[in-house]
Amino acid sequence: MAKQGATTTRIWRRTIFALLLLIVVGFGIVTHSVFELQIVKGEELQQRAIDQQMRDVSISAQRGTIYDRNMTVMAMSSSVWDVVLEPAYIKEEQLDLIVDGMSEILGMDREEVMKHAVKKNAYEILQRKVENDVKEQILTFKQDNNISNGIRLVENYKRYYPYGSSASTILGFTGTDNTGLAGIEAQYDKELSGVAGRLVTAKNAVGTDMPLEYEQKVDAQNGHSLVLTIDRVVQHFLEKNLEEGIINNKVQNRATGIVMDVNTGEIIAMAVKGDFDPNNPREIADPVERARIESLPEEERGAALEAAQLAQWRNKAVSDTYYPGSVFKMCTGSMGLEENLINENSTYTCNGSVLVSGTTIHCWKSGHGTETFVQGLCNSCNPFFIHIGQLLGPDKFFKYFEAFGFTERTGIDLPGEAGSIYYTADQLNPVELATESFGQNFSITPIQMITACAAVANGGYLVQPHVVGQILDENGNIVETIEPEVKRQVISTETSERMCAILQQNATTGTAKNGYLPGYRVAGKTGTSEKIQTYLETGVMEYIASYCGFAPADDPQYAMLIFFDEPKGESYYGGSVAGPVWAKTMREILPYLGVEQKYTESELEQLDVQTPDVVGKTVDEAKNIIDGQELSYHVYGEGDTVLSQIPEHGKTIPKNGTMALYTDQASEERTVTVPDLTGMTLSQANSAAVNAGLNLSITGAALTGSNALSQSQSIAPGEEVAPGTVITVTFVEYDQVE
């Protein structure tokens, strides 16, 4: 019995131990599970529960507006609408009706709409950013068919650029999510974007929204607006003339222009042609390139399209480097003057070439003979500037090269600015120093070149270029003003003034005279730079034609650089390709910007005069008035009274020009054919105009040079115009100046 009792006790002990072990293990498992659920996975499970119970919809913030300096809207966001289906609310009997209606209004495939309509949720985006006309069609459809639930319109925003391609490489564009992808839109994306809001609503077991007390809304914070330093009118003049220059000179690789306030660094205009329309940035704007891509095999088309898009979006003014060519001579000359190594009367004898460490470097001309420094710059003489570089030596040359900003990015507030490629002082052996002295063998960006030009003009100060002037909040209050910044003084005020005077002489009678403008005291320098890398790759030498200058030379205010990449017309030289475009653009923008004309006595002698008002006068009275105005006249018709006149009252006409006086209805209908006045000397063009009964107004190199030929005319040959009409003809000297 005792043994049996002991056995029973052991069994109970084992049973109790097993039970205790099971309890401990079970409790441990439960504890582990609770720990894992509450601690390890607690946050994740809590978020999943919230996701199941709550719906969080983003509320778009309105992107800030971009204005030009005069508060003209350049980029804006307008309301558009996201079309949303709410499948959980669609009544079964209205399903086909809604699917058919939405597919028709939105132009979508019916099966695609049906896929969204039968999903088991309450929020399906069907189409984003539809315009107001589509929104109105949807509202009418809902009303006509008594549809209260199942279709929702959610406000969104779409970016618009009112002036199309104008300033597109500055403005950039946005993506479908309203994020800036290029230009100012990308550079200032954080300021423009604002902060999206949220609409959080509770959902029940079937995924539909619960009553309004379970809804919470956080309003979006709209983005800030930007006021650019760009002037839309100046931008228009620059772009128009660049486009004309591309056509006239058969430019293959786009053109660039920059207008800068030399004292503040504000960019008044910056253009790249060809560019693109930011309203539809992925479409290739160049019809020839577009046709080429469409003609490619399908497997090649995608890569070609992407390459063409990147090319048209690229801002050559800040993202491309080039050899500046002879434009750089304004910097080398300033270095020599500042170091007192040369003065205006220093002489050098140019024999057409110079031997540097066994390498012969040629001048563009067979030889200029003995010339002063002023004459050397006006002749754009390469050997003279090699001589200046040798006087400076590598260390001093590089010191100023660095001070002018050529070794660092300018820091302009635009994306994609390229760095320059250059030799350091230690790397400047005699040949490199010689070629760099006249602007070859190193690569900089156009924005670096015009910033250095501004320093030459403004008293020697290197200013910070920028395109944004102010940041505004959504109520128009100023959040930030970008003040002008001077980085350093590169040359003295005295040296700057001396260089301004020399460059003015160059633009009046020197190799830059194709940029001459009466009364505006223009200072300028031409450049014709070689594309050495292209030559090494293809064996064909291509060129960049440029003109860089400023006005007025005695009180510099605005500088402009014009740059044509690979001209294939009659000339590829900077003076004849870029000079006339520079002059035409400055002739339009300087009066607009309020720069006053001051004429020399010789300019006054050639100045056009305003026509008097003789309409309504008798013919004899009209003749007496005109005789006192340094003008002549021609009477058309048999009447006794002047019914109309050409040019009209107040229009300008060259001195000794001929006014046409019409005295009856038949004479008023008289026309003459405009002849082709291009390719002529001044006397030939004037004779052709007079013989046709027209007046000739001249601009360009014919005003100061003797070898100019007419390049373009304001009214196309073959057009019918009234006798006495004034034809403005631009004259150019086709010097082959590098």
Question: What does it look like?
Answer:
With 738 residues, this protein is α+β, with helices and mostly antiparallel strands. The chain folds into 4 domains: 39 residues; 146 residues, Penicillin-binding protein 2a (Domain 2) (Alpha-Beta Complex); 278 residues, DD-peptidase/beta-lactamase superfamily (Beta-lactamase, 3-Layer(aba) Sandwich); 130 residues, Trypsin Inhibitor V, Chain A (2-Layer Sandwich), CATH 3.30.10.20. Helices cover 37% and strands 22% of the residues. The protein has 24 helices and 31 strands. Strands 2, 3, 4, 5, 8, 16 and 17 form a 7-stranded mixed sheet that branches. A 5-stranded antiparallel sheet has the order 10-9-21-20-19, sandwiched between helices. The protein has a 3-stranded antiparallel sheet with strand order 1-6-7. A hairpin with a 6-residue loop joins strand 20 and strand 21. The chain starts with a helix and ends in a 6-residue tail after the last strand. The mean pLDDT is 89.
